[in-house]
Amino acid sequence: MCCNFSILKQTENRMLILLKGCGNYQLTFKNLNFNLSEEELIAFKNYLKKINIDYWEKEYEHSIYDKKIPIPTLQTNFIILINRFELYELTLLLNIDKKNDYLDYQYLKSGINWN
Q: Whole-model pTM?
């Protein structure tokens, strides 16, 4: 980790850090540590926004595991399982508001036509 960093947000079990030297982020989630570029962080936030908690809890209602919500990884033999409270804490940590999902101006490639 570079020595010039800033803690952006912190909860009891999680922390989001901006590494100022390289512009990347570190997301600490209990015993997991994610090193993410800005694009990867945005993609992760977008994925979390789309998780249907009720669907996954129903899908795995008879699972032997307490945590029912999967977060897939590129490693085929590794899936992160979380529960609805951990997902909620993650959304707070990453400033995700599921109710107000507006299109950001940066996604408008052709610009704005004010007519």
A: 0.75
